[in-house]
């Protein structure tokens, strides 16, 4: 469905540009955007490599394991369906840790592995379980302590203070995470109530 939406938007934009006689500006915008995208990607590679390397050092040193142990009691309350010491919990904690450090690209493979394990726990059903919905909500709106990607983009555009957004990001992402958990719990409560009454 998303492919059709994007294709439709692209087609509407091209038809509108042709009717307005601004096709040359659209063409220039496409090439300028492509050039900037490559420059941003190269800038992001250096920062992501640094942070991923730092995460690997933290993993080898056992810091991530200690952090996972610290967060585990809270994670057990957020994901009560996941059995203790199940592989899914390890992937969930790794995914959330990567998101906390602003490493969305590193979090994605761990999130996929967590979803695979949660699907096995759900008996391979196509319908998402409570834990799968919660993980999706937290992965989308997770607390971010270090917005690595955004800082990298600001640095590539020669911002005078690229880290000025850290405190705002922590506050905004914290509010988003609390909101996501509250909405997740609210709809779970509604669904449970509906199932009990039927």
UniProtKB/TrEMBL annotation:
Nucleoside transporter/FeoB GTPase Gate domain mapped to chain residues: 42-153
Lyase recorded as keyword: no
Short name of any one Pfam family annotated for the protein: Gate
InterPro entries assigned: Gate_dom (IPR011642)
Keyword Transcription regulation appears in the UniProt entry: no
Spans traversing the lipid bilayer: 37-55, 133-153, 165-188
Key words, A-Z: Membrane, Transmembrane, Transmembrane helix
Coiled coil regions, renumbered to chain: none
Protein name (database record): Nucleoside recognition domain-containing protein
Organism of this sequence: Shouchella miscanthi
Lineage, highest ranks first: Bacteria, Bacillati, Bacillota, Bacilli, Bacillales
